[in-house]
Amino acid sequence: MSRAVLYDYFRSSAAYRVRIALNLKGVDYEQRSINLAEGVQKGGDYRAVNPQGFVPCLEIDGHTLTQSLSIAVYLDQTIPEPALMPRDPIDGAHVRSLALMIACDIHPLNNLRVLKYLAGELGVSEAQKDEWYRHWIAEGLTALEAMAKPRAGAYLFGDQPTLADVCLVPQLYNARRFNVPLDPYPYLRRADETATAHPAFAAAHPDKQDH
Ligand SMILES: N[C@@H](CCC(=O)N[C@@H](CS)C(=O)NCC(=O)O)C(=O)O
Questions:
Q1: Residue 73 and residue 163 in one domain
Q2: Whose CA is nearest to atom 10 of ligand 1?
Q3: Is residue 26 exposed (0-12), middle (13-18) or buried (19+ Cβ within 10 Å)?
Q4: Which domain holds residue 161?
Q5: CB 111 less than 6 A from any atom of ligand 1
Q6: Within a 13 Å sphere around the CA of 177, how many CA atoms are in the beta-carbon half?
Q7: Hey, whose CA ends up nearest to atom 14 of ligand 1?
Q8: Looking at the chain, which terminus has fewer C-beta neighbours within 10 angstroms, N or C?
Q9: Could you identify the atom of ligand 1 that is nearest to the CA of residue 66?
Q10: Preceding omega of 186 cis (within 30 degrees of 0)
Q11: pLDDT for 1 beyond 80
Q12: Taking 70 as the threshold, does the pLDDT of residue 4 lie above it?
């Protein structure tokens, strides 16, 4: 079977999730950088790979997969260890909730195309755009902290990395880039600190990627 290919961009939170999942599962993969800042994702060549024009996209086992959570679940199903999801259905539902809060409710409001549309078509100022970003991050992270707190351990759920941490670490990286204060979220910060010390997470960090 040929080597997996990840269509990637160093700063993309969604691609960062997949890098973490691939590293946790020990998958050897080639990275192809799609420069989002230069709009390469909108070009015909990349649309032929992923018609949605987003990274990440993963070619693996003869298939082309899109959507970071779908990719992470595929990896978890085909390479069961180490598990990204707890076996217990209720624990699993909790972990999925945490991951979906980030991937569906926080990240889409603040990704590149939304911020570009605000600043471009809608003509909002830089200050208003930053305010938008901080508002949705603070609201989302406050809810996430409250949800995670009762069952958090060294990681967001318990003491092993799960899909929730795969989503958390890139989101907090992103928040720091926009100078969002993270003091109000001690449980999120603890999980982030534990995870970033893990080699699979460390190797996926944007600073470690070619771009
Ligand atoms: N729900 C998608 C989100 C993917 C996404 O938003 N990717 C962003 C980068 S983080 C992107 O490719 N944006 C291209 C653009 O904004 O033009 C996933 O989880 O994979």
A1: no
A2: 12
A3: exposed
A4: 89-200
A5: yes
A6: 14
A7: 54
A8: N
A9: 20
A10: no
A11: no
A12: yes
